[in-house]
Amino acid sequence: MDRNQKHKIKAQKQKEKVDARVAQAQIEQGIMLVITGNGKGKSTAGFGTVARCVGHGYKAAVVQFIKGQWDCGERNLLEQHGVPFAVMGTGFTWNTQDREADIAAATEVWEQAKIFLNDPQYHLVLLDELTYMLGYDYLPKDEVLAALKNRPEQQSVIVTGRGAISELREMADTVSEIKDIKHAFKAGIKARKGVDW
Ligand code: ATP
Ligand code: MG
Question: Helix H segments across the chain?
Answer without folding.
Answer: 3-24, 42-55, 73-78, 93-96, 99-116, 130-135, 141-149, 166-171
